[in-house]
Design a protein that fits this description.
Blueprint lengths: L1 H5 L1 H18 L9 H26 L4 H27 L11 H67 L5 H17 L6 E2 H18 L4 E9 L5 E2 L4 H15 L4 E9 L4 E9 L13 H13 L4 E7 L3 E9 L5
Parallel strand pairs: 2-4
Antiparallel strand pairs: 1-3, 4-5, 5-7, 6-7
Length: 336
């Protein structure tokens, strides 16, 4: 019984029927509700229940429109028959029950009340269906985000394992430090990025760790610089978005040249939550630059931005003969 009383639809139907009954029985010449009006209205209630909980789900929603129309017509005819042939004969045998006033008159008095009772049920079902569709879309979106996020770890690990392998082959003394930095970044990716949004300060901290990892990778062949201007860090951000652009810069900058590698990263966050991110790297002409803006990582982050920051971000990628530059702006207020 407790579940029944907690059911919102039941309460909705109860309130609806009370309101409709008040309008149905109200007569300003005689505002007092008469006992027979309860009985007459009960005839409409039974018909409304039949339409709402039998005809709508069994015929209208599956698309059997002709059958629905036929059965609604039969229910309406039954309401008129019960009222004219039974109830009026009982309560008004010498007046209203003495003669049949015609189909048109009865339809005009029957259809409005029946339509209200059935129409509100149809509207209620439409709202429920809309909510279910929204929940389904959100579920699909969340599944897609989880899938996209799951692609980042193998992609990141694959790129860095190659670098780690090179250090191990050369028996570099920096290999333990590289492993430590790599494990720290992976720990963040695997365990702290499960949420849809993470702390901006935590994400920036991991970007710094990742850049330190990049400096170890290109040690002696160039430099990686990071500049920050964060006036307000009490924001949240979708994780593992900015890191993809830095990873691409490290990958393409180091693969196109063996020395004079320059990678510049700039992050600004204003007090009103506008993040501006710039990442640029140089490369030598004559290398295969067609692959700079392709691959799993970049396509992945574009999809995630479209899902998580629709109409709240801009992404511009520019490449000239010497420099590849990414400019991204994000409205972090959308991720609060």
């Amino acid at each position: 019984m407790k579940k029944i009383f907690l059911n919102k639809e039941i309460w909705f139907q109860v309130i609806l029927h009370i309101v409709v009954f008040i309008f149905y029985s109200f007569d300003r010449r005689n505002p007092e509700i008469q006992p027979y009006q309860y009985v007459f209205f009960l005839n409409f209630v039974l018909a409304g229940l039949a339409v709402n909980y039998i005809l709508l789900p069994k015929f209208l929603y599956p698309g059997a429109y002709l059958k629905f129309i036929i059965y609604v017509a039969l229910v309406t005819a039954w309401v008129i028959f019960v009222e004219e042939a039974i109830l009026e004969k009982i309560y008004f045998p010498d007046t209203r029950g003495a003669r049949f006033l015609g189909v048109g008159y009865n339809l005009m008095s029957t259809l409005p009340t029946l339509s209200v009772l059935a129409g509100f049920k149809f509207g209620w079902d439409a709202l429920i269906k809309q909510k279910e569709v929204k929940e389904l879309k959100d579920s699909v979106k969340e599944s897609e985000l989880q899938f996209l996020k799951s692609q980042i770890n193998p992609h990141f690990l694959f790129n860095n394992m190659n670098n780690l392998y090179s250090y191990a082959i050369e028996k570099s003394p920096r290999t333990p430090e590289l492993i430590l930095e790599l494990s720290g970044v992976l720990r963040y990716m695997l365990y702290e990025c499960k949420a849809k949004y993470v702390s901006l300060s935590k994400e920036v901290e991991q970007l710094e760790n990742f850049i330190n990892l990049g400096r170890l990778q290109i040690e002696g062949r160039g430099k990686v610089t990071l500049s920050k201007s964060i006036t307000q860090s009490n924001f949240r951000i979708a994780p593992l978005i900015l890191i993809v652009f830095i990873e691409n810069a490290l990958k393409h900058g180091s693969s196109s040249q063996t020395s004079d590698i320059i990678i510049d990263v700039d992050i600004k966050v204003t007090e009103d939550g506008l993040l501006s991110f710039t990442c640029s790297n140089n490369y030598k002409t004559g290398t295969n630059t067609n692959n700079l803006d392709s691959g799993i990582g970049l396509e992945n982050v574009k999809k995630r931005l479209a899902i998580m920051y629709p109409k709240a971000h801009t992404l511009h990628i520019n490449a000239d003969k010497k420099t590849y530059e990414v400019k991204l702006t994000m409205d972090l207020k959308k991720s609060r």
